[in-house]
């Protein structure tokens, strides 16, 4: 090989490393192609002044092109293709892959708080959707990577919002026996079915009160809700809020009625 | 004109033609890699990345259509020459005939379509 300047030498090393990485696992003989490419570079630089400068070398490498263009994409192993897409693909594909990757990681690491990763995954998914909208192009195949985290996060948030803050003290009240003490220890003496119905009535009252309170508040906030809970709250209207209030009232009446009568 | 469509179309078209061109280049005489690349690069629009030729040569060798041999060169290291095998010659002849039929058919269509 013609003598190279240190900068050109480093540049050649990087290129050959990329060549080996890209072609490994495909149907071609990597070492033979590396030898061919070295010979090609040697021939191309034969008439250049020595030592060969980085810019002269890069002119030849540019003509050779990126090794990733040399083999059909379907020959490259799937995992490497995936990594390459994340590294070099269009930004909106990178967002989609990262979004889906975080969601999967959240599921795998669920016992150690993995679902918290669904929050960044949700925002990455929203960014991918926004990027597609800005370019006025359909999401296409990316929707399979982007929608699951968005729907997962939105469903979780919807469930938490519907359950409301009153349910948790009610659950805690049953768990800690506080509720039992309120009714002079009678709760645990009830037959199992009656006990379950009593607890359900307490929950119904708690949820019902929350819906009665939250539904009117949700009307002025419906744009924010629609933006946050995509796509579930897209069509949330005043009528839905009224229906939620009515459902809350029914829950309170039934819950209180059962407790009163029993 | 749809640029994405044009890019895809030319890429697909080049893929198959490149192998035919390599085999035809070698049917005249044996050549070393750099020489093959230079011959093909002279055809406008055929070679976008010169490096593409080397994996193709490697596959042709694996399929026993070409063979390699080393020969000392006057001004540098030994050169690796590629040449057609007998199987490669037969394959080239078959591909040329196929190409000719295809060309005639497509040309006929184009002539009919031209007002």
Observed structural traits:
heterodimer; A: 262 residues; mainly alpha; 0% strand; elongated; B: 115 residues; alpha+beta; 3 strands; globular
Describe what this molecule looks like in 3D.
The complex is a heterodimer of chains A (262) and B (115). Chain A is mainly α. Helices cover 71% and strands 0% of the residues of chain A. Chain A has 11 helices and no strands. In chain A, helix 1 runs parallel beside helix 3 and helix 5 runs parallel beside helix 7. The longest helix of chain A is centred in the middle third of the chain and has 34 residues. The termini of chain A are far apart. The model of chain A has no long low-confidence stretch (mean pLDDT 81). Chain B has 115 residues and is of the alpha+beta class. Chain B is 63% helix and 17% strand. In chain B, strands 1-3-2 form a 3-stranded antiparallel β-sheet. In chain B, a hairpin with a 2-residue loop joins strand 2 and strand 3. In chain B, helix 1 crosses helix 4. Chain B starts with a helix and ends with a helix. Chains A and B meet through helix 2 of A and helix 2, helix 3 and strand 3 of B.
Q: How would the blueprint of this fold be written?
A:
The complex is a heterodimer of chains A (262) and B (115).
Chain A: H1 6-23, H2 30-44, H3 54-64, H4 78-88, H5 91-108, H6 118-134, H7 143-176, H8 178-182, H9 192-218, H10 222-228, H11 238-261
Helix pairs in contact in A: 1-3, 4-5, 5-6, 5-7, 6-7, 7-9, 9-11
Chain B: H1 3-28, E1 31-32, H2 33-41, H3 53-62, E2 66-73, E3 76-84, H4 86-113
Helix pairs in contact in B: 1-4
